[in-house]
Fold each of these.
Amino acid sequence: MNEILKAIKLAAPKIADALKYADKGYATSENQTGDRQLKLDILSDEIIFNELKKCQSIKAIISEEREGADEINPNGKYIVAYDPLDGSSLVDVNFSVGSIFGIYEGEAIASNLKAAVYTIYGARLELVSALENEAVKLYQLGKDGEFGFVKEIALSQKGKLNATGATQKGWSETHAKLVRALFNEGYRLRYSGAMVADLHQILLKGGGLFSYPATTDAPNGKLRLLFEVLPFALIYERAGGEGVAANGTRLLDIKVNSFHQTSPCYFGSKYEINEVKNSL
Ligand code: AHM
Ligand code: MG
């Protein structure tokens, strides 16, 4: 596990550098989900892949930007699934984006998720980890090129922020009512369009709700289980919050049938997730 964390710590500064200086234009390709790829999506994927493939403990690697699983070491213990550049549609406007990693032992299914890590490329390069049996920890890249420990992250029982995605005209009435009820209670709207940044904000401000609901045109939502939804579900649970699907099911209990499977998702502190459950 340490070896994987080290590989992530080597890859992240290279991506942060690429975001500053590399070509921000589109590539001519699409990824597995049909999203148009930026050259930076492809470059970030290569940077991470090249570091992870050196790890003896990794059996296979799954990326948002690749079709199947890449087998690395037949005797490796872990499968690492990652989104190399989450929120990349915001690169052109210089918003914060990130990379998300789920570390699975054996098969890549929710119950095997052992650890989750994300990095956020903002004014600072930060890394948040939830390793096996550990609290959620925040690190920051220092001038010396090392990630220094900043603090442990824990959610309050109730927050103040409400971040909800997707096209509103496609929301269900249940979702629209929930969002309205939170605003009526005094919650503030915060939504950048990069889940890493939006979920990071809620974690560090103590709580709130992030939701990416089912819509009429995407009944299974947009966000992908293996490398977006499940890693954050683990981090939110470890921080004292919860992650649930549209029907209130715990995200970490969802059956994963395919690498690019999506699910509607709600992440938050206890109070807001109770509101989600009560709204059903
Ligand atoms: P990406 O991995 O291609 O960047 O897509 C995922 C992103 C999330 O970061 C974000 O929450 C969501 O897509 C935003 O979608 P929308 O604009 O539909 O709200
Ligand atoms: Mg993403």
Note: The mean pLDDT is 96.
Amino acid sequence: MSIQIFNTLSRSKEEFKPIVPGEVRMYVCGPTVYNLIHIGNARPMIVFDTVRRYFEYKGYKVNYVSNFTDVDDKIIRKAQEENVPAEVISERYIAECRKDMESLSVREATTHPQATREIDGMIEMISTLIDKGYAYVAADGTVYYRTLKFRDYGKLSHKDLTNMRSGFRQLQVTGADQKEDPLDFVLWKPKKEGEPYWESPWCKGRPGWHIECSVMSRRYLGQQIDIHAGGEDLIFPHHENEIAQSEAANGVPFARYWMHNAFLNIDGAKMSKSAGNFFLVRDVVAQYDPQVIRYFMLSVHYRRPLNWAEEFVAASQVAYEKILNCGDNLKFLLGSAGGALSAEEEAMLAEAEAYRRSFEEAMDDDFNTADAITALLELVKWINSHVNGESSREFLEKVQYLFEELAGVLGLETERDDALEEDLASYVEARIEERKAAKKARDYALADKIRDELKSRGILLEDTREGVKWKKI
Ligand code: AMP
Ligand code: ZN
């Protein structure tokens, strides 16, 4: 079966046909680096990393590009607050972001370009747009894109331009009066006092946000790419503007498939820095096994909203534990097993392949990781009831290979991380001591609170005659 992708452009599922057979060129808009990332930002990272892994599993060679936006108002503001150059801020948070990605098993991209290192390419593309009549220079040196000249404007977001224009008119802000039309957007803007800037034919200044992705995508992937992706908040205006820039400059269609993930919400609202309703990846992975977070993110299809709530994460923890137990069991049996596959085992292996088929069916259907996880858990159940001390080594190895291969597509480990287990054990022991002290001080409310907190992390305490024992739920 071929892979079907929901394309935002056509608002329907389409069969994936690569530009070059056997290859995927894919660009994913990355974060603006002025702060630590929150777990909402981690959703596209995990989702599209999984898409990449699945393509590779299917035998494609994937060229995966994801940028860091390292010049932006927020970065500049933060640099001014700390009284350091903007680069200090962006380099710091790029390094931190890489650590967070690694902790969530998000693989490094083929290339992670940075906007500030691609200014020449941006100046070149903006010049082409001016030459072709798609952009113009205002009196103060700002360069604007002449939006309505691009006939297809609005094709991605399916927006009605007439409504949009009247909306924009009411919202006219400073500087807008030098635009020919309210829909025009900035490609290059003059520097303000104390801001980083670059020389250009128009003025000393810096690029607008949208142009960087058109330029970096062309430089690292070519004029036409297979997949362009990001969170759904990027459809308009960011991706719409990228299409206008790239297609006008290059004269060929830009991306074939546009993929957008829905939001990670908290109490029904989008998790965002500005709303203040966020959890940092850094804090969340200190509290939970990062693999549980990855499992949680993939437990819902990427185009559905996902609600962040402790009980859902705890449920993911319980489910992921089943995967680890199965991995443990196989490892244990492999410790002493020997011998080659029996005829009976060979027949059983054919049966196990059915789980691979349901896994692939789910992933082929617009990367339905929710159903793929179900197939993986069914395989776990099957393994648990088909392996034992009598199993041959070859059988166990083949079963383990299948299990690890499918889990690996989702970026899930099947082996426990010993260091993490030790961390968990010492954390739980410390909390048990705290609870003991609370009880001694007759602070039963605190003792109960500690027990409940541990429970929400999937740890069950049992008061026994020999003292307090604990186990994972
Ligand atoms: P930003 O740094 O805000 O440009 O975001 C980087 C990426 O994270 C973009 O693809 C956004 O669409 C995505 N993103 C931001 N907040 C959320 C959220 N709450 N849920 C899912 N994706 C998000
Ligand atoms: Zn972008």
Note: Residues 29, 213, 238 surround zinc ion (ligand 2) (CB under 6 Å).
